[in-house]
Design brief:
7-stranded antiparallel beta sheet, 225 residues, single chain, 3-stranded antiparallel beta sheet, Pnp Oxidase, Chain A, alpha+beta, binds flavin mononucleotide
Length: 225
């Protein structure tokens, strides 16, 4: 199928895009508003975009044209923490996605403990195996007046917290971190099924080409696949 996204409704686009761009890591985002109210919610429009300097981005959306509490707080105070979600925390992260009033306490709802941050006001999740303290670099509004959409929050990481046993020197241990990801719909995944691929040096390229079946037919847009 060849799909023009402008012909689809929100729900169809949600299913299609989230099912294709998968798995996505999950940012458990903690923020504080101007009035001091705290917020905690999971976001799977999340990734790292640079390691030097460390930069992450999250995409909190809106509800009926009103920015979600996390986006509102980020715009008001410019700070956030991102705690990572492991298998043990998945259920609780999901709980904190419930639509509740602005002043509701999602920390209590999820049953997790706020641990103080060093550089920023929002706390991080004490039970999380790793967390980033972040300051917002910029927020790109992805919507229009007619079609409100997510904010793309690009943030500089000022501090990285990692549980000692999840590190081998300074190298994270996936078997200890046991992070989870999000697929389409309500599907989540673990990171237990792993494989390694060596980066091809120019000397190895010919060997790899011999071993990997080469494409003989090049399909063009519009052809049946
Ligand atoms: C695993 C997971 C990932 C989610 N990812 C996003 C996301 O990337 N963007 C978004 O707007 N909502 C996402 N949501 C929904 C929000 O968590 C939910 O709307 C939450 O109530 C927002 O909280 P807030 O209004 O307190 O900011 C996700 C929910 C779950 C369970």
């Amino acid at each position: 199928m060849l799909i023009d996204p402008t012909t689809l409704g929100r729900q169809e686009l949600n299913r299609l895009v989230n099912g294709l761009v998968a798995p996505r890591p999950i940012a458990w985002v903690s923020t504080v508003g101007e009035d001091g109210s705290c917020n905690l919610a999971p976001f799977s429009f999340f990734n790292a975009f640079s390691f030097d300097p460390p930069v992450v981005a999250v995409g909190p959306g809106q509800r009926s044209g009103v920015p979600k509490d996390s986006l509102r707080n980020i715009r008001e105070t410019g700070e956030l923490t991102v705690s990572l979600v492991d298998e043990e925390l998945a259920e609780r992260a999901n709980l904190s996605s419930a639509e509740v009033d602005y002043d509701a306490d999602e920390w209590e709802l999820a049953g997790v403990t706020p641990a103080p941050s060093v550089d920023v006001r929002p706390a991080r999740v004490a039970e999380s195996p790793a967390a980033f303290e972040c300051r917002v670099r910029t927020v790109v509004d992805l919507g229009t007046a007619e079609r409100p959409a997510n904010g793309l929050v690009i943030a500089m990481v000022t501090r990285i917290h990692v549980r000692n046993e999840a590190l081998d020197g300074l190298v994270p241990r996936p078997d200890v971190l046991r992070l989870v990801g999000r697929l389409g719909g309500n599907l989540w995944c673990t990171t237990r099924d792993r494989f390694a691929l060596e980066r091809p040096t120019s000397a190895r390229v010919e060997d790899v080409k011999r071993d990997v079946p080469q494409r003989s037919v090049v399909s063009t847009p519009g052809s049946q696949e």
